[in-house]
Fold:
Amino acid sequence: MTDQAEPIAQQVTDRVVDLVVNAVDVNALVARVDVNPVIAQVDIDAVLSRIDLNALLEQVDLNALLEQVDLNALLEQVDLNPLLERVDVNILLERVDINEIVARLDIGAVLDRVDVNEIVKHVDMNAIVEQTDLGAIIAQSTRGVGGEILDAGRSQVVGLDQVIDRWVARIFRSREHAPSAPPALLAAQAER
Structure:
């Protein structure tokens, strides 16, 4: 008979526990408990020493936890100034590869954004002229232009000389052929 009574007792016990749990307002019960004296008696170090943090962290789904964090709200509460004051900019600059940054730049796009007229407004032309020897530049360019003009004039005169020589030969209809060069020059060429 004991064998039959045991399952019935188990069923009655389960039913009673279920009724008590459902009848008790757990939130109201917890609200009435003063946790402070209990916490004051707890040795936190002893509790923490018995916890295997690695095993506990393995059970935490960090992705699910991070999905619940509002990063914008969190960042709004952070004062960045103390953090930035602790940053050593020189160390950061030592780690930066300037060549890599320049290689990634679109120089054309940068230059498109430059307002050259605005830059020129700030240029002190008087100071630039004072620092250059403008007279020497003008004289040099004038000499170059003058030399070019003289060379062009000389070639025109040579061409004109040949045209005149032909016309004179036609006018006088000389029976002799005119020498191809002045006599002194012809004699020097013959001696060679």
Q: What stands out?
A: The two ends are 155 Å apart (CA to CA).
